[in-house]
Write a structure and sequence with these properties.
Layout: E1 4-7, E2 13-17, H1 22-31, E3 39-42, H2 48-59, E4 63-66, E5 75-78, E6 86-87, H3 89-92, H4 102-109, E7 111-115, H5 128-136, E8 140-144, E9 147-151, E10 166-168, H6 174-185, E11 190-194, H7 200-211, E12 215-217, E13 223-227, E14 235-238, H8 243-256, E15 259-263, H9 271-279, E16 283-286, E17 290-294, E18 304-305, H10 317-324, E19 330-334, H11 343-350, E20 354-358, E21 361-365, E22 374-376, H12 380-392, E23 396-400, H13 403-408, H14 412-418
Parallel strand pairs: 2-15, 3-14, 6-7, 10-11, 18-19, 22-23
Antiparallel strand pairs: 1-23, 3-5, 4-5, 7-9, 8-9, 11-13, 12-13, 15-17, 16-17, 19-21, 20-21
The chain binds uridine-diphosphate-N-acetylglucosamine.
Uridine-diphosphate-N-acetylglucosamine is lined by residues 23, 26, 96-97, 123-130, 171, 173-176, 201, 314-315, 337-338.
């Protein structure tokens, strides 16, 4: 999918189901590297990033089996034949999360060569904290020719293993916490990760590692304690629902004045987002595994400050900018996690939004309507905000470089179509036209 054409202007209504979480799936796939036994994951989302990770693991000698017709979206990984602990630049450059192989590889294979991810559109995004943590665990680690090269130390009993250590990350880092937690599971002795990320995806990973025989306490808090074990076993684990996908569809319903019910999701992972939607005037109801939302006639502006979990997620900032673009008043959005995450603002302005950027602050003055135009997607969540804006805009919006969406939203067209207003009898068109355009 390269371009997306959206005919906007009508409310989203109906029901859609939420897929497995991309940001949980990626570390969980890497957890397979920690054991010689098969790891079976269900609810694995069909996303390009998942495909990239499976390709990378396959290149390392991991056997991957996926039943295409399987309704549970099951993937089984068998890393007993792991023989090539290398993540080449070509793989890592398209997906920064490939750095998540580093910890498991050093821990189990005793060595790793992983390309540095480099910067990306939303910011510099270094991995110094991952490196610092592994070094503190005794890894001999260096950066040479763009690659992180790491080796585990030899323990007194002759085994090649990382050593447990007390780790403190300078800032809260999600993949950093995940990498170090996975590495610590096979280290000799106890590891303490302080200032750990508390994201639900970290907890999901910890739950899978526990099922594999790891000894972990405190996941979900800012101190995680891990007692290393000599080996981990296989397990079966269901991946949590995608809270960012959930939030994106809720925002789309809010912005279009719609009414939706999203099933297969966990409201408890979305408190900050639900609170902001309620503040904007939406009625949000929570069920055991579903959320429903009814939008007000006109949205109230909501100020946002992104922060590590349980604060407001940076991955929902762009979508809320689209919501605020249509609110009745002025909203201030502060981005505190990434230094360059306002690129969607200039594109939203092309659709008629009134947004002023000053450093890490965006001031959004709501307008009564947006107008369709041609816009360019710059990253995954920026693309989502343009889709939301396009759905609300009058006339056609053509979004270019939409391939970013395939990295993080499974079946976007189908789900939006399912949320489309019912077609009038006899009519041949719905208000949402989504199709692949030629490149
Ligand atoms: C993860 C998510 C991403 C989300 C982000 C913040 C995955 C696969 N991706 O990315 O969707 O937007 O968390 O919630 O889970 N930093 C350093 N040095 C490091 C590590 C991080 O300076 O070694 C900085 C980053 O540049 C950034 C901040 O710390 O400014 C947080 O980044 P981090 O939590 O690591 O983001 P990711 O784990 O890459």
């Amino acid at each position: 999918m390269d371009k997306l054409l959206i005919e906007g202007g009508l409310p989203l209504k109906g029901e859609a189901s939420v897929s497995g979480a991309k940001n949980a799936a990626l570390p969980l796939l890497c957890a397979a590297l920690l054991t010689r036994e098969p790891l079976t994951l269900t609810n694995v989302p069909r996303l390009n990033d998942v495909g990239t990770m499976l390709g990378l693991l396959g290149q390392m000698g991991v056997k991957v089996s996926r039943d295409e017709g399987d309704e549970d979206d099951t993937v089984t990984l068998d890393a007993s034949g792991l023989d090539n602990p290398v993540a080449p630049y070509e793989r890592v450059k398209t997906m920064r999360a490939a750095i998540l192989v580093l910890g498991p590889l050093v821990a189990r294979a005793g060595e790793a060569k992983v390309s540095l991810p480099g910067g990306c559109a939303i910011g510099a995004r270094p991995v110094d904290q991952h490196i610092k943590g592994l070094a503190a665990m005794g890894a001999e680690i260096s950066v040479e020719h763009g690659y992180v090269i790491a080796k585990s130390p030899r323990q007194r009993d002759g085994s090649i293993r990382l050593s447990g250590a007390r780790l403190f990350t300078d800032m809260v880092t999600v993949t950093g916490t995940e990498n170090l937690m996975m590495a610590a599971c096979l280290a000799e002795g106890e590891t303490l990760i302080e200032n750990a990320a508390r994201e639900p995806e970290v907890v999901d990973l910890a739950n899978c590692l526990l099922a594999m025989g790891a000894k972990i306490e405190g996941a979900g808090s800012d101190v995680i304690r891990i007692q290393g074990v000599a080996r981990l076993s296989g397990a079966t684990h269901r991946i949590m629902a995608d809270r960012i996908e959930t939030g994106t569809y809720l925002c789309a319903a809010a912005a279009t004045g719609g009414q939706v019910r999203l099933s297969g999701t966990q409201a408890g992972t979305l408190d900050a987002v639900i609170e902001k939607l309620r503040e904007s005037g939406c009625k949000v109801g929570v069920e055991a595994h579903a959320i429903h939302l009814t939008a007000p006639k006109r949205l109230t502006p909501v100020d946002i400050r992104t922060a590590p979990y349980p604060g407001f997620p940076t991955d929902m900032q762009a979508q809320f900018m689209a919501v605020n673009a249509l609110a009745d008043g002025v909203a201030v959005i502060r981005e505190t996690i990434f230094e360059n995450r306002f690129m969607h603002a200039t594109e939203l302005i092309r659709l008629g939004a009134d947004i002023k950027i000053d450093g890490n602050t965006a001031v959004v003055k709501g307008v009564s309507k947006l107008d369709g135009a041609t816009v360019m997607a710059t990253d995954l969540r920026a693309s989502a905000s343009l889709v939301i804006a396009g759905l609300t805009a009058q006339g056609e919006t053509l979004i270019d470089r939409i391939y970013h969406l395939d990295r993080g939203y499974e079946g976007l067209e189908q789900k939006l179509t399912a949320l489309g207003a019912p077609r009038p009898t006899g009519a041949v068109e719905s208000h949402i036209w989504l199709f692949d355009c030629p490149p």
